[in-house]
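We give its fold:
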Amino acid sequence: MTVPPLPGVHPAWLPPEAFRAAGSRRVLVLTDPVGDLGGEALPGPVADLGGEALPGPVADLGGEALAATVRAEAAEACERHGGAVVAPGEPFDLVLALSSADALPPEAQAVREPEIGAEGFVLARHDDVTVVLADDPAGLLYGWFEVVRLGEAAFGEARPARAHRPALRRRMLDHWDNIDVHPVMGQVERGYSGGSIFWRDGAARGDLARVRAYARLLAATGVNAVAINNVNVHATEARLLTDRLGEVAAIAAELRPYGIRVHLSVNFASPIVLGGLDSADPLDEGVREWWARTTAHVYETIPDFGGYVVKADSEGQPGPFAYGRSHADGANMLADALAPHGGVVFWRAFVYNHRQDWRDRSTDRARAAHDHFAPLDGQFRDNAIVQVKYGPMDFQTREPVSPVIAAMPGTRLAVELQVTQEYTGQQRHVCYLGPMWSEVLGFRFWGPGERTVADVAAGGGLTAVSNVGDDPYWTGHPLAQANLYAFGRLAWAPDLDPAAILDEWIGLTFPGGPGLVRATLHEMMDGSWETYERYTAPLGVGFMVRPGHHYGPDVDGYEYTPWGTYHFADRDGVGVDRTRATGTGYTGQYPAPWSEVYESLAECPDELLLFFHHVPYEHVLQSGSTVVQHIYDTHFAGAEEAAAMRLAWEKLAGSVDEALYARVKERLDEQVRCAEEWRDQVNTYFLRKSGVPDAHGRPIH
């Protein structure tokens, strides 16, 4: 059994029915070299679960576990759906083979490539046989899930051999899970799906079967790394590095069979907090030795450990600034401790002044990451990865792409997304984020033909804050599962069409459902990000949310606070002047042509206008509408579209599982209510500020 039965837990995109096409066939699995190593190390690609070559024993550990998973997956699917796992020499319809396996059948030999590469696979339909060929067991596992994703299409007409390789080497989810329930943030910080799947009652869960099921779901999308605790490392969580390391090892054992390496968020001040030292200075030899010893012990316990995640000198977390050192000094200290073991440190660039004087318009939170990190380009070790949020602020519904991504060509960068919908409806609203992420990953700083954001991230990876909890539907809102699925698929292949990804998710999650289900979910979800944007903060200005929990409208909620999240609405206009000519100079952090585009009031895209410019309410947008009329029109339209989603869903009564239908209906009722509240508060606010009535005479309070 690959995953034990989980009563009451939704199977997400891996229901048993999704395996019917593969499981009803005769399947030949050839992984013999992995199972018969005799203690020898596997080649480097097998060791490469996260991009770094690992020592031989680690390769054995990960390679054999993955090969066993492939065999078990095929056997379970066949047992359920009437197929069979056959022995060499017997007839077969599907072959899953390592390229190094003995006696590859002719059908596999015909599609063999000189080097498929780490985690990659070749898929072909040749002589009425479907072939998956890989150089390592991780690739074979991903190939198996590609066959599952294709269903009967994998066994149809001839399919030319095609190599599938991950575009990004690290595809990681960060869990903001706390061991102890935090008095303000709860069990999972910015989590909207119940408690943690890792931790309960102050310790690792005794039954970790759900962690194994989670690993399986992630592997089916291509995710290969997970950080299992909050980046805000509290006292209890800090001890995972030392005396509670056994709990981390237990979780790693559940993730390993699906090719997922565990990472830990660590407290920069751990030498003081855990080691009894009087300093955490990254240039202090005693501190460096403490980290080297501690890290060596981690790898003795978890040989395939991935590395550390660090939030330092940000929002109260300790960091190298206390010792007059730079972020490069801090990151390199940890990188040096990890290097002998093949590990990496993800050092977050989310660093800004969170005690800003709201009266001071010269300080701009959007500038902070670039100001701190761009001057350090080229100073980071090769296994130190600077993790940059995709936008300069904080996971808003609409932001420009962070200029840091273009400013550090000599540094390995990871781009950070947020699957948990902190500012996009908190999994109470339908908001499919695939189109947003696709737009970000495809953004080109220097024009046609130049590198995309995804190209830059290839060296470091794509990371995201997970949206999973112990809710029966994993993500609270059943339709929010699509965001988790889309993250993994885009991390593997950033050029995929987000509508096609959504279609995959629908087909897997609702196998055999009537065409009405597919059509209705596309109707509801394809444009749901834009719908959410319409009824929330307009034209890229951001925030306008209730302070603290960040749910629902509060136009001035953060306007006079130290957090640096302002819109500067007054009687004359709205927006933040970030130009070089008259504002904070933030536009100058971008390379040409974007520095000129964003600087120009005439050329700045409408959807980002208020992020870059303070303009009068009757300023005419490129669309031909005035700013204030745009605000009125979009907020009325967004609320109407939310109501239309609910009506669309009601058409599916009786076509989907009754309990799932009820959960989604409940969430849609809340979305409609909240969208109307956003509409009325935002429109009323700007009517009262501007004194300009709605041109269509609609009710504004």
